[in-house]
Amino acid sequence: MEFGRALYDGDGRWADGTLARRVDECKAEITETPLRIGASPLRCPLWGPQRAAILNSKNCRMKNPMKMLFSAGRTALFAFGHPSAARGIAVALLLALLTSSSAAAEDQMQTSEAENSQPISSSPVHVDWISDITVAQELANKEGKDLILFFTGSDWCAFCIQMEEEVLAKPETAQRLSQRYVPVVLDFPHDSELSIYLTQQNQKLKSQLNIIGFPTIYFVDADLLPYGQMAGYKSPAEFWKSFDQISALGAELSAIKVGESVADIQDAQRLDRLFGKVPREMLEYGWLTQIQRMIDEPSEADSQIRQSWAKRLAQIVQENTKRDFLSAMSLGFRQRLKVKTSSADMLEYLDSFAVKADGNAKLLEAVNAFKAHYLFNIKRFKEAAAIADEMIAAESADPKTVAMMQALKQQIAASEESPAVEEKAEIAPILFPLRD
């Protein structure tokens, strides 16, 4: 026990710096050394069901340094009978073990390389997933490809594992993806730990692309500008149908870019064609910056294109502002419902958002529609009808909002005719689309 405490303080810090560095180097070698399973170069640790099998394989097997350390220390202490002498001997033994393990791994790698140097099919057998997005971007630029990003929970997400087994682990998938894409896996495991670098990288991309569930697949160019996604589990038929559609769009975008980065394109007509093909829901993930760059171009040429996109950009910003405003209001509303907030406090909460709308007619309209539905749900029909009438009569009212209020008036009339309707607990009001 003294030996263990002398070399390891129990808080993740090794007392001997040389030993710590060697352990880290050995871990890095095991983690980063490419392995070959069949004809496919893989990296360890892996994601998905393959993880355990590969980690336990002879190419990726390494004993826990602490177990090796205590084993060496116990042997040395038994042999020499003195803690200080045992400590030195154990360190030497462990360094020898680590060095021999590294040499054995190198020999194994050379043997594996020799085995795999024999002629094989040019088509990959397994998807060659990369976990480092920077490495993937460099490879995509070098090979003229886009990236496919797979967001997964490899050791807990049942649908992720199912889609991996049914689609992503198939040789057909490896062959088709390799034609246009560099595949990247962004894992969020529960039972295993990623490096700090990968954890931060994956979280950043998850936030950047607004990932709200797994599995999610994004199709992006080498600058991470997206043009398609698959959200949730997809059967093989659904996967390939979506893949073909998104991949075809990617090919069209690549033909317009002609090998250039979007940020380097100055021609407004090319940018107009490019922006026009990107789906609306993808534009806000990096594309808006490029649209604004085109709009700000001082040249008089193609001014109509710039003016058109300036209007479109203003509309998108307005839609996003409304969406974020309603999202915040709905979240607070539902939280208050869970704790059974009184109707008086709930109406006060909604009125506070009317103030936050700060004269923005669209936002105020949304708050009032929300409030009218809430009043209906708590059976304050007259107040709900008064708000609905006011909104229907407004000249600037959105047609969708008018139709919603007219439908609400019909519900109020039906409820007033049937007063014996079973009492209901307060529920969230009917919500309208977040985007127009």
List the keywords.
436 residues, alpha+beta, two-stranded antiparallel ribbon, 18 helices, disordered N terminus
CA(first)-CA(last) distance: 68 Å
- Count every beta strand, where a strand is a DSSP E run of 2 or more residues: 6
Helical residue percent band:
55-70%
**Mean pLDDT reading:** 77
Number of helices: 18
Largest sheet: 4 strands, mixed
Radius of gyration: 30 Å
Overall 3D form: globular
What structural class do you assign from the helix and strand content?
alpha+beta
> What oligomeric state is this?
single chain
What is the topology, as strand order, of the major beta sheet? 4-3-5-6
Tell me the fraction of residues in β-strands, as a range.
Answer: 5-15%
Low-confidence stretches: 1-72, 74-80, 111-121, 421-436
> How do the SSEs run, as a string of H and E?
HHEEHHHHEHHEHEEHHHHHHHHH
Task: Give a verbal description of the structure.
There is one protein chain. This protein is of the alpha+beta class and 436 residues long. It has 18 helices and six strands. The protein has helices spanning 2-7, 17-32, 50-55, 65-80, 83-116, 133-143, 158-168, 171-180, 196-208, 236-257, 268-277, 280-283, 287-295, 303-338, 343-356, 361-377, 381-393, 399-417, and strands at 35-37, 40-42, 146-152, 181-187, 216-220, 226-231. The strands form two sheets. It has a four-stranded mixed β-sheet with strand order 4-3-5-6, with helices on both faces. A hairpin with a 2-residue loop joins strand 1 and strand 2. Mean pLDDT is 77; it is low at 1-72, 74-80, 111-121 and 421-436.
